[in-house]
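Exercise 7. Given the components listed, write out the predicted structure of the assembled complex. Treat all entries as one system.
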Amino acid sequence: MEPLLKLVEVSRRFGAVQALYKVNFEVNPGEVMALVGDNGAGKSTLIKGIAGIYPFNEGKIFFDGKQVNIHSPRDTTSLGIEIVYQDLALTDNLDVVANMFLGREYSRFGVFLDEPQMEKACLETLQSLSVTTVRSVRQTVAQLSGGQRQSIAVAKAVMWNSRLVILDEPTAALGVAQTRQVLDLVRRLADRGLGVVIVTHNMHDVFEVADRITVLRLGQSVGCFERKSITQTEIIHSITAGKLEHVPGMTADG
Amino acid sequence: MAEQSKTPEVRMGEQETVSVVGFVRGYIKRLGSGDLGALPIIVGLVIIAVIFQSQNSNFLTPRNFVNLILQMAGITMIAYGMVFVLLLGEIDLSVGYVSAVGGVTVAMLLRDSSAGWTWYTAIPLALLVTAGIGLLQGLIITMFRVPSFIVTLAGLLAWNGVVLRLVGRGGTVIVQDQFVVGIANSYLPANSIWGWVVIGLFVLGYAVTQFLQYSTRRSRGLSTRPLPVIALQVFAILVVGVIVVAICNQDRGLPMIGVLLLVMVVLLTILAKNTRFGRFVYAVGGNAEAARRAGISVTRIRVTVFVLSSMLAGLGGIILASRLRSVDTGAGGGNLLLNVVAAAVIGGTSLFGGRGYVASAILGALVISGVENGMGLLNLESGDKFIITGIVLLLAVIVDSLSRRRQQQSGLA
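Answer.
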């Protein structure tokens, strides 16, 4: 199967700091890929590179087998890649519908909001994702629980025919039941044929939903593992002491 | 996060029309959880009416009611703009003197009739000038990232200076143009049907939009508010409208300026609630970062709102000039700015952005102007007036933050 997104030896520097060095990464359609690593391993930098916020300095990006360039967030969006950041980027004072459509409102004559149309589409999306815990899509986001917010943020990301969804620490602030709810949602996204990347610290989540696991350490990829053929202990070992091809602290060419 | 388990799982998309009982129950629940809406203001207005009427029987008379509409017109118009600025979580302290710039511009252009200016060229130019002021201030705020508080504070001083320079030392510019004087000094004749026509059109328009909304939502299978509740709302507005016109018609009739306020509140409410621009204003005020990530040009929204606010201030200034039939060196000063901010805040617009309605500026202005008007009738010393106005503002803000705290406790807000 052709990977949906494939990064080949991408690198990113911030001044003297080599945040990512020749990292390889791929996601297949219909697959949940976990991206794990300790603090400072380069997970966020990798995500921001894909997002076009901090474009990679070197390396190649393939989407659907075709080489593409990502220089700005707009490039990412137009490829059909959506990213749900940890802070979710929801506006508390607006209702669920308004949040789902923020910046892409349906309108009549390009000016007046088409609320019924938006509400309908919003309900359909939530239903298709089996997000059933939100009582009314007309309540403000401030009234929702953490899990509901996360679900709305994810639903917002998949609403626009996106093909790859990247979730940054989606369960970090959630309780047990809500984590369950979000992980189920993640699974459903993959079952619909989307590629899903889940960035997390939580080994439990990783082994719960991921199909494959990519481990980053000190800005380099340690490896990519099938979930079924590896144990938690082995993953933790590679996160903390995985073998690196390049010794950190040396120059990029070293 | 235990609340999740308590939330009943309701199938979405199968939302039916809420029953009347359910709707009333929901409303009472909202009140109980601290979401008071316009209720405290209406209670406040009743208290104000009772107190002043008991002190001076001229307070609740048709004549004074019409006076009150004239008195509140300028403040209300400027407060409309202030609501937008507050929705962004910003403030515009310059609106008082910007309004004076608008008034002075019109007054000076029309001072010499041989200069060739007419009301229909002078008023647009004045609005353009004040819009330009808003553009300037908005650009400085967004380009140099200076807090709007500081930029408009500088504006407050500078535009005061401009007004003083234009009017001249101790001078007064008289407004003689019939149209401009007429803005705040003419009425829909008391013995004609025009007042009724205006209110009829307004209520009809409201009823039609509500019903259209109801039927569209219905046809698309979305939940709707119960029809009797909608009918009751339309009826309530009709009753208020009829009372207002009936009272005005016992005196000079419905002031033209009242009609202008009504038209503007409708237009601005549509702008705030039914357009992409309005949605973006609320979004930027609620979470600017989220708005930015959603592809909204936060800078453009901010600048546009400051332009809008200054332009409405200019319009308010023209109304004030029309009412006084002149502009003097004190124009835009005194407690005009504070009254405007008070009107917006008493109306329930949050100083922290993202919450508020344009229409609530009318209620806020009614409270502030009502108190001022009442104290005027009682011939209070200006010291006492300031103290009382201060207390009223403080009470309003306390009620607001109490209700907000209540809302936070009950998981709303």
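Discussion: Chain A touches chain B through 47 residues (CB under 8 Å). The mean pLDDT of chain A is 88.
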